Amino acid sequence: SFTKARRTLFDSAAAQLHQLRGAAGIDLSKHFIEVEVLQQKGQGCFSGPESARGFCFVSAMAGDYAPRVCLETSMGSVTVELYQKHAPRTCKNFLQLVEKGYYDGVVFHRVIKDFMIQGGDPTGTGRGGESIYGKKFEDEITRELKHTGAGILSMANSGPNTNGSQFFFTLAPTPWLDGKHTIFGRVTNGMSIVKRMGNVATDTSDRPTQKVCVLSAKCL
């Protein structure tokens, strides 16, 4: 239906805007005006003031909910917003693992400067981890979400449909990962911490020479 198609379009546009705003701390507020669409009141989707460029951007449909998680790391606090509408099974897996304390004390075992930092494996080897589904689960790839810059939260895997508990944060645009890894969130607070973690010294296996870990994680 037209309504369903319009909702899908708005959700995708909102997610892309959030990605852009999160990348490198870019503030797009001067270029776009976010307006809430009050569908139940029948208001038009482009009602409201226009920006200097003449565009109006929708942030979310009424009733949307974006879960947030705070990761207290050994270098500081990082808050992420999850793309539940685009990757519901991935977000459910991450949230339930957080609630179980699964990530508490888990190290970031792989860091590649100007690329990404990877964690979520309780064995700390890069070969461990599990999902709430009892096995590896399928990718949730969408063309609307791409690895556009620093601060994208995405699932690590060993091939198609092999998601478990491991995840990574991008440190730069990584377009070659598009279509191969499930994007399920972005950093909303603490990007400076992520960048600091991305600059730690590593050995020849990309493992940090100093311990960098998640001390605790909680749903907000």
From TrEMBL:
GO molecular function terms noted in the UniProt entry: peptidyl-prolyl cis-trans isomerase activity
Protein name: Peptidyl-prolyl cis-trans isomerase
GO BP, sorted A to Z: protein folding
E.C. number(s) listed in UniProt: 5.2.1.8
Domain of life assignment: Eukaryota
Family indicated by similarity: Belongs to the cyclophilin-type PPIase family.
Cellular-component GO terms for this entry: catalytic step 2 spliceosome
Signal peptide start-end: none
The PPIase cyclophilin-type domain, residue ranges: 65-219
UniProt entry keywords in alphabetical sequence: Isomerase, Rotamase
InterPro entries documented for this protein: Cyclophilin-like_dom_sf, Cyclophilin-type_PPIase_CS, Cyclophilin-type_PPIase_dom, Cyclophilin_A-like
Taxonomic source organism: Tetraselmis chuii
Reaction catalysis annotation: [protein]-peptidylproline (omega=180) = [protein]-peptidylproline (omega=0)
Function (record text): PPIases accelerate the folding of proteins. It catalyzes the cis-trans isomerization of proline imidic peptide bonds in oligopeptides.
